[in-house]
Write a structure and sequence with these properties.
The chain has six helices and two strands. The protein has 120 residues and is mainly α. The chain has two domains: 1-36, no CATH class; 51-119, no CATH class.
Length: 120
Amino acid sequence: MRYAQRGGYTPAEQQRASGCGWRPPGGLPAVTVSARFAPVLLAAYLMPSRPAVRRSAFGLLSGAGALLLYLAWVQRAGPGTTCWHTETASGCDQNLNPLPWLLAGIVLFIGGIAAHARRG
């Protein structure tokens, strides 16, 4: 039985559709993915070399914690599927469990503030 008869694609068709296999699963070229991390790599390079930046290094922990707290807030209806409807539209959303995001966010946020205060 062919793959197409079962609703799938042959491996050759999948390779042609994915750009000859040089792209990651997200479909973006690897250059684009690495370019997104350029500011993080630049900050990691500058941190040890500049005293002013090194003094505020714990702010990175608090900032990462704030992002995780935001993720927990966005996923607050989870875990599982949440369906909604209005007069003109309806739909369902998949939500993650917010507790791991919340706990990690609290630890990083408070840990960054406490470490900065202790150092300071």
